Structures are given as structure tokens and as C-alpha cells.
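Reply to dn_fold:

You asked what the input looked like. This is it:
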Amino acid sequence: VDKRLENLEKRLARVNEMITDLENLLPTVKKPSNTITYTIKKNS
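and this is what came back:
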């Protein structure tokens, strides 16, 4: 049972790392599009 728990914890840690990586990538993707729409609204 302990080994299974350890494996689950390792998998969870990996998933959490992937999620944090994605969250780090998302803001950089979202920000430019927001600024573009903002400037378009300002100009119109």
C-alpha cells in the first residue's frame, strides 16, 4: 500500500509541475491579446 501511495504522490507532483508550467505559459499568451483588444477599443 505504501508503494502505491508513493507512486500516486509522484504522479501528483508531476501533474502539479505540468499545471504550474501551463499557468506560467498562459499569462504570456493572454496578455498580448488583451492589450491588442484594448488598443483597438481605444482607437475606435
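Helices lie at 2-43.
Hope that clears it up.
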